Amino acid sequence: MRAIWWALVVVVVLLGAAATAAEVVEDFADSVPEPFKVSQHTRRSLSVKSSRGHKKIYKGRLAKSKEVPFQVYVRVFLADGSKEYCGGAIIGPRHIISAAHCVQMPAVEKVCSIVGNENRFHKQTLKYTVVRQHFYPKKRAENVDADIVVFLVDRPLPIGKANIQQIRLAGKNQIIPTHTTCSISGWGRTENPLDNQDLLRHTKVPVVSHEHCRKAYPNSPTGDLLCAGFYEQGGADACKGDSGGPLVCDGVLTGLVKSGKGCGLPHYPGTYTDVRYYWSWIKKVMTEDMRKEAPNKGGTRVKHVNIC
What we know:
Keywords: Disulfide bond, Hydrolase, Protease, Serine protease, Signal
Domain Peptidase S1: 57-287
Pfam family, one: Trypsin
Radius of gyration: 20 Å
Low-confidence stretches: 8-42, 46-56
Number of helices: 3
Strand content: 25-35%
Helix content: 10-25%
Oligomer: single chain
GO molecular function, one term: serine-type endopeptidase activity
Family: Belongs to the peptidase S1 family. CLIP subfamily.
Shape: globular
Mean pLDDT: 82
């Protein structure tokens, strides 16, 4: 009798494993980048509603929040009940920077910035409501994509804790040579669909030459374009879900994950918004936000804000 009982247990386990495998395959297929395109390549934000797969930095390793204390998880709530998520970085006591395309979509109801833990859903994370958004006022003659947004949050971040710190912006004239090793981090897609989707990952990538960058993306604006990755062999890369996350070179915020063709493909490195191009504008909007007379001036005030 006991032998029959154990046989039944084995059958149930095998059936459950088969169902799980089928679901993983389905999830992985669902998570292949959709044509949410700008400049003919895929934006790296992720719809939670349309893609259930496990997603993180591609070819990376698990990270602790103390290793990347400036990392932000940006959650965007839409009117239809769906959510988008992206990355971001802390650049001031009340300011966070991310990719503009993460929030430039119809019917955005609320944007939340979550900090303080490598597990984006941990009970000890701190949640902040975005109350103002600044988008770069691109001029017609500028050869830039301007995929950048600066958020003002509802209250000061507890900067100074080991796991919550701001990162310094790369200077507008700072030189970042080709082959400089930089780090990227986020909760975007990985090469393994079985990875825990809630845990932060990071990896290192080298800066790619402007020549190779233009060759890979000939139709992209080049004024604010920066490429990083392993050009010849592919491999480590940012991926879908990492948009707006930090590219850190020589200890300073140099780029924001923007877009790319696939993830980790040879001859198609990851693309980033070059923060150096926007240094003066970023400093300007941050200063204006913090002036006493500016609570209702500048930027786009978020309407009907609810607490995250």
